[in-house]
Amino acid sequence: MSQHPTTYVPKSAFGKWFESRLPIASLVHSSFIAFPVPRNLTYFWTFGAILVFMLVAQIVTGVFLAMYYTPNASMAFQSVEHIMRDVNYGWLLRYLHANGASMFFVAVYIHIFRNFYYGSYKAPREVLYILGVIIFILMMATAFMGYVLPWGQMSFWGATVITNLFSAIPVVGETIVSFLWGGYSVGNPTLNRFFSLHFLLPFMIFGVVILHVWALHVPGQNNPTGIPIKSGKDAVPFTPYATIKDIFAVVVFMIFFAWWVFYIPNYLGHADNYIPANPAVTPAHIVPEWYFLPFYAILRAIPDKLGGVIAMFSAILVWFLMPWLDTSKVRSTAYRPQYKFFFWVFVAVCVLLGWLGSKPAEGWYVIVSQIATAYYFIHFLVVLPLLGLFERPLPLPNSILESVMGVQKGGAGIPVGANAEPQSKG
Amino acid sequence: MAETTTHVAEPTRRDFLYIATGAAAAVGGATLVWPFVQSLAPDAATVAAGAPVEVDLTPIAEGQIVKVFWRGKLIFVRHRTADEIKAAEDVNVASLRDPQPDSARVKPDHAQWLIVYGNCTHLGCVPLGQQGEYHGWFCPCHGSVFDTSGRVRGGPAPINLPIPPYAFTSDTKIVIGQDEATA
Question: What positions does the entry give for a ubiquinone binding (chain A) (predicted)?
Fold first, then answer.
């Protein structure tokens, strides 16, 4: 951004008056209109915009649901049924919100694996990436607490199992758990505080998203080649190119979202959650929502309570170290032939862990879970550090332009050159 | 050091005031956290709801497990059969993960009554009675196995099902939440 100083000059008298008092128009102009975007971005780079849309959609539907929901253990289940049956379009609000959580995670996982594939986490984007991991952790906490609110059987027992993870902490574990519950078991105080935090956390996510976008605008976006923008010819202005592409991708994603909401709104849920919470009976087969399954599989793979909990939390915490664990200087996996193989093995292992998390913890499922868990950590702790030392990457293109247009002769006569000058636009 | 450098000034009264103010603010801020954290703990009503509960054992048939609640926590009251008692007593205690003889888990002369907390010590699910390898309990969530004394015999649970405080007030009545000494 520093190489591209804002050229925004307000035209109207009011614009000039306002700009000298709060320069927000020039901030928007330099960040979202004139901002140079690599010209070779694929649709994988539209998921940031899709995620912003999902966050806003969840906040809007959630604020309305909160108007009709009662966070009390004896009334919560009934109030959700009230939303479904009596509130005008309550069924739509609730299905949008419940499926919206899943869509949010679909988008965030694509966003995360795009980041892994193209090495977006590497210098100079480490802080940007770490903020993203923080957002993901906040998303998991928010989604978990939201799932507790309908106070069905899965809500209650999900809350019991997840809060009991903290009882694995030696000495102070039991005290921590009673402070989480506000009682001696999951109960009304637990539901009250989860509702409060479920309302708060999305706004904290929003705050971190602002930092995430800010951190993005310092080095600019990564791109499929992983090499930086070297000249104006490598870039296009954010508006209209990225703006229109993002809007189009959001609309396509909304169609996908709508298909779940209108055709199979309960497919991603569990039938047991339409049974009111009963602290005397645990459902026969208790599984978390699909987006937690890989981590749940890691938890169950370790036949020791504390060990399982440590492994599960480490599986996410190891992400924080990724910029330093990966020793390769080449960002994009497109130019790392050996890493490309390991990347897809890693993707397969994550999907396998997700599948195993949905299966009962018995027989050969446990053995496979243990192997997959071991590989998960090997990927981060062995493959990433070592491969960068031994791998011989493919030659990188000289510029983004060259990767798109092929090697050009001379600097003049590039037909699209004029369009590619961000400085000349807006 | 101080003699060799010319730009290090002597600490002044102002420096002391800065440090004292900063320290007071830090202590004050930390103190203010206390009531907020404490408000998360079980409140007075919840603690009061922990008053002892009386359980009449007469209707509980041999081999039956009854679920009761005390302080919002599930408790199993199990009327053990002679075979179940024998199975629990005939165990090599040293071989257990959480070694405890059966006699330490029941009251003297009341070996047929086993009173244990009803949440798995792994992650809190409710184990299913009369199931699993030892016909004690089996937890459907993550596969922990308990014997007829409520002791962990397999799976991820780290310890035995704990025994709540309780006392026999007569041969057919117990009070949960009250120790023998105060009964």
Answer: 217
Q: Which helix (H) or strand (E) is B174 found in, with range?
A: strand B173-176
Distance CA A367, CA A372 (A): 9
Size of interface A-B (CB pairs under 8 A): 87
Find residues 52-91 of chain B whose CB sits inside 8 Å of chain A: 67, 69, 71-74
Kindly report, residue by residue over A68-82, the tens digit of the pLDDT: 999 999 999 999 999
A97 is in an annotated binding site: yes
Instruction: Give the type of residue at A262.
Output: F
User: Which CATH number characterizes residue B177's domain?
Assistant: 2.102.10.10
Res B6: pLDDT: 59
- Residues A419 and A421: their CA atoms lie apart, in Å, by 6
Interface membership of A134 toward B (CB under 8 Å): no
Torsion (CA) B13, B19, B21, B24 in degrees, nearest 10: -140
| A282: contact with B, CB 8 A cutoff | yes
Which CATH number does the domain A35-404 belong to among 1.10.10.10, 2.60.120.280, 1.10.260.40, 1.20.810.10?
1.20.810.10
- Closest-CA residue of B relative to A180 is B40
For residue A213, pLDDT beyond 80: yes
